[in-house]
């Protein structure tokens, strides 16, 4: 049962952090890629991404860090997971889409690394509090 709570609370943490990014920092994306953006985001695919991504953060960063009682392990693995995940998306876009800006690729990979790191830290502390 604690794993379910870990998943739910870590998902909430990730969603809250990413919401702040999308609300305040990522507003400039439309200047660079507005021609590619939908007028209304499709919420279902976004939700599926959140749910899948948090599974990865927990399996590849939170639990290894928690099991070794090493927050730095969770931090480093979380950063690596975020960088790899967001690089997959952004570099594929850079390779396949016309006029996909390099600046968006760089900013988004940095953001993916950052949000995954912060989420891994939150998940580590949640796991510790729950005694997973």
UniProtKB/TrEMBL annotation:
Q: Which Pfam families match?
A: DUF2177
Q: Where are the transmembrane segments?
A: 6-22, 43-65, 71-89, 101-127
| Organism superkingdom | Bacteria
Q: Which UniProt keywords apply?
A: Membrane, Transmembrane, Transmembrane helix
Its protein name is DUF2177 domain-containing protein
Which species is this record about?
A: candidate division WS6 bacterium GW2011_GWC1_36_11
